[in-house]
Amino acid sequence: MIITQSPKIKQLIKFAQRAGRSSAPVLLTGESGTGKELFAELIHHSSPRSSKAMVTVNCAALPENLLESELFGHEKGAFSGAVAARQGRFELANDGTLMLDEVSEIPIASQAKLLRVLESKRFERVGNSTPIDHDVRIIAASNRDLQREIEDGNFRLDLFHRINVIEIVIPPLRDRIGDIPPLAMHFIGQFKNEGDVEIEGLNSAAMKALARHDWPGNVRELRNVIHRACVLSDSPRISVEHLGLPESADSAEQRNGGGVPDGAQVPDGVQDGSEPHEPLPERWLHTHLEDVERQIITAAIDRFGNRRLVAEKLGVSPRTLTNKIKRYRESSGDDRKAA
């Protein structure tokens, strides 16, 4: 299940479901921890192959001398330690889906054999020359820039074109911080009973700290942070000190509380300690959340000019502000200051 309130991720979900209805290979790219395996599962369950197996192989975890055996299987006595015949992942995934996670870690010599197997739809077990037909839908995933890997001689261009019929680029968590509240509450639901106190949610300062963190480890890092906080918290609501996030220039403000920044919707369980505010303009109640945020950023830049000052006034990091401006420019295709 992909938990999101991000319009971009919702669009990607619909795109992945459409891709799933075909048999075309899909390449999932994005930083580590962004949820590539969840998208792979979505594609499989949206496909005509959903009643068959989905098999995942982590290419980075396999030694070079065992990779071909894992993918294609081996016969008894094919090598030292092969005490019995064994099916490979292609056989196990036949008529279903095979996910090649961290495909960029496959050694260049093995890439040539993988390419032949994908193009011919046949393979041989290690220690046997009898070809075996396969009908496998390939989903590949990588957290590396494959174009750069090709330029550096670490990845074959022809294999890249073979697996990159449909590409889905999953954005990092720092570019969709509106997903942090629902994800945090989802993980709290998983780990709320692992400490001495049953966890109900986070206080406002803790949620603000989560929203301002850069999340280099993305959703996986958020999950670990919430797990740790659920174990260590001595009150039903998680505080900043339980998160274990690195200190930043904003830490004092985080500890003093405040609302959740950037228009993120606050789910049940998040305690907002902010003061009562004046009513919002009526038109904002009928406007998409991102459009309201965009109007605020544009007005702030017109008023204050300097982006660092704008970031300070809006209660976000300069990096977050820059990312938002870049996203708005890409979505609108024009050169307006914050659009």
TrEMBL record:
List the keywords (alphabetical).
Answer: ATP-binding, Nucleotide-binding, Transcription, Transcription regulation
Instruction: Map out region (Disordered) in residue numbers.
Output: 246-280
- InterPro entries linked to this entry: AAA+_ATPase (IPR003593), AAA_lid_NorR (IPR058031), Homeodomain-like_sf (IPR009057), HTH_Fis (IPR002197), P-loop_NTPase (IPR027417), Sigma_54_int (IPR002078), Sigma_54_int_dom_ATP-bd_1 (IPR025662), Sigma_54_int_dom_CS (IPR025944)
Q: Which GO terms describe its molecular function?
A: ATP binding; sequence-specific DNA binding
> Pfam families this protein is in?
AAA_lid_14 (PF25601), HTH_8 (PF02954), Sigma54_activat (PF00158)
Q: Does the keyword Calcium apply?
A: no
Q: Name one GO biological process term.
A: regulation of DNA-templated transcription
Q: State if Transport is listed as a keyword.
A: no
Specify the domain of life of the species encoding this protein.
Answer: Bacteria
- The Sigma-54 factor interaction domain sits at 2-231
User: What is the protein name given in its UniProt record?
Assistant: Nif-specific regulatory protein
